Amino acid sequence: MSGTLTKLLGELYRGRLRVIDLTQPLSPQTPLLPLPRQWNNTPAFKMWELSRYDDRGPAWYWNAFETGEHTGTHFDAPVHWVSGKDLPNNTVDQIPPEKFIGPACVIDVSAEAAKNPDCLLTLDHLGQWEAQHGRIPRGAWFLLRTSWSKKTNPKDYINAQSTGPHTPGFAKEASAFLAAERDVLGVGVETVGTDAGQASTFDPPFPNHYLMHGRGKFGLASLCNLDQLPPTGAVVIAAPLKIVGGSGSPLRVLAITP
User: pTM, whole model, 2 decimals?
Assistant: First the structure.
């Protein structure tokens, strides 16, 4: 084993590095992104027992489950959006595995989100963050901390009103900057999707999806525990299931941090 890997394991064993789980539990109660009725919606997570040390299987316990690719804490591949449909290596099974690992840049807009659920990350936010923490490195996971994952009531989490959902997200200029000027791996959010709740009314609609996936970037949705990460210095591992032709996948997102 290389000295670098030996040192990493030693730091983990000695407790000098922590592994933070950024994944929300996946169950039938997991909130789902509500789409208008004219479009197909994702099915809720469902699990059923196949055997539990009984006449269906005397020595083993196992289950079957079904759900959508974009349920719970999940990965968005470029093919998920029309802007990324013709890119090479655009499905979860084709993405090179080294692209699932990258440094984390965490920006905290929790105070703004608490006052305004429709708040958007802007170029000004990014400029202020870089002035304090340095340039966002190429190949980083850029994570938007809003504390939205602390809303344990599904109705509050989706925050749907007569005008649709109201949750924070990205201004299109910020998404374009991160994808093109900083060449990030992708973005991660605590909300049910990587666009703001009102993004269907933006130009273009759902601009973060359109701009990120159009440049071959990824999305991580429904993250949690971002308050346990520093602005810089953590590494995020976000590997989706290797679904042939898949547009996304539920996944376990882990961060290694001092």
Answer: 0.97
